[in-house]
Structures are given as C-alpha cells and as structure tokens.
C-alpha cells in the first residue's frame, strides 16, 4: 500500500533544479519547476541506468547527463532518444515546507 514519505524540504531545491532521493532500494529525483511546483519520478535513466540527479532541468524536462535523453518530469515520458522507455512519476504534496512523495 502506498504511503507518503518525506523526501526533502522545499528550500533544499532551487527553482528549475532537482535533487536525488533514495528510499530503500529505489532512487528518485525531486524536481522544482520554474513555476515553483514540485514533481517526482524515477531517478535512473531508462536508457543506460545512469543517475539523473546530475542532469539538467529545462523547459519541463530532465536531461540525462550521459547521452542527453530527456524526460518530461510531469509525465515521465521519454522525449528524446536514445531513451525510449518512459519513467514512472509519483504523486507529490507539499506541507509545512516539506516535500512528500507517495511511494
């Protein structure tokens, strides 16, 4: 059964940036968009299993640091090759300056 898990504080992430969050054996990225909304998705690129935490956030996407594949952080959709497998996204809520994701 999914539960809400604290991932970070809102102040931990700059606008248009992301951080890595590990929980158990899963790795996620928490993204703060340029319009100050928070999003969460799998933190490993579906192409070559590279951590996305060193990637670039731009125009609604996260770019993988290895081969420049991009993923829409709202939907997880693979937007640019070489990635062709979508990533899973997770519900996010912000409460009292804390970011929670439903895992």
From TrEMBL:
**Keyword Iron-sulfur applies:** yes
Q: Which InterPro entries match?
A: MocE_2FeS, Rieske_2Fe-2S, Rieske_2Fe-2S_sf
Superkingdom of this protein's organism: Bacteria
Tell me, what's a Pfam family for it?
Rieske
Domain (Rieske): residue spans on this chain: 5-101
Stored SUPFAM superfamilies: ISP domain
**UniProt keyword annotations, A-Z:** 2Fe-2S, Iron, Iron-sulfur, Metal-binding
Q: Which cofactor does it need?
A: [2Fe-2S] cluster
Quick check: keyword Transferase in the entry? no
As for family, the record states: Belongs to the bacterial ring-hydroxylating dioxygenase ferredoxin component family.
Q: What is this protein called?
A: Rieske 2Fe-2S domain-containing protein
Q: Which organism is it from?
A: Paragemmobacter amnigenus
């Amino acid at each position: 059964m999914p539960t809400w898990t604290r991932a970070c504080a809102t102040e931990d992430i700059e606008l248009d940036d992301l951080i890595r969050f590990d929980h158990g054996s899963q790795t996620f990225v928490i993204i703060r968009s340029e319009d100050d909304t928070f999003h969460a998705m799998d933190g490993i690129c579906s192409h070559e299993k590279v951590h996305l935490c060193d990637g670039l956030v731009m125009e609604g996407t996260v770019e993988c640091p290895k081969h420049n594949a991009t993923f829409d952080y709202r939907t997880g959709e693979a937007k640019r090759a070489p990635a062709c497998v979508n990533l899973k996204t997770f519900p996010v809520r912000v409460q009292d300056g804390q970011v929670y994701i439903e895992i």
